[in-house]
Amino acid sequence: MALQSLQINAIIAMRARDVSRPTQEQQDAADRRPLRDETQRREAPRRKQP
Question: Are 25 and 32 in contact (CB under 8 A)?
């Protein structure tokens, strides 16, 4: 019920945008990291048969 009365105005929206924005250091690290599709898939370890 409490969420129904929640109103998001321009100031709250701008604060949320600023908080969710990564820092330059985080952005640089993400740019250096390969995308998930570009990484090689590793074979799953095989279990020994009892």
Answer: no
Determine if the pTM surpasses 0.90.
no
Is residue 21 within 8 Å of residue 30, measured between CB atoms? no
Check if the beta carbon of residue 30 is closer than 8 Å to that of residue 22.
Answer: yes
Q: 30: which residues sit within 8 A by CB, 6+ positions away?
A: 22
Reading the block at residue 1, the tokens are 């019920």
Element (H, E) at 36: none
Quote the pLDDT of residue 46. Answer: 67
H or E segment to which residue 4 belongs: none
Residue 22: which of 10, 6, 33, 36 has the closest Cα? 33
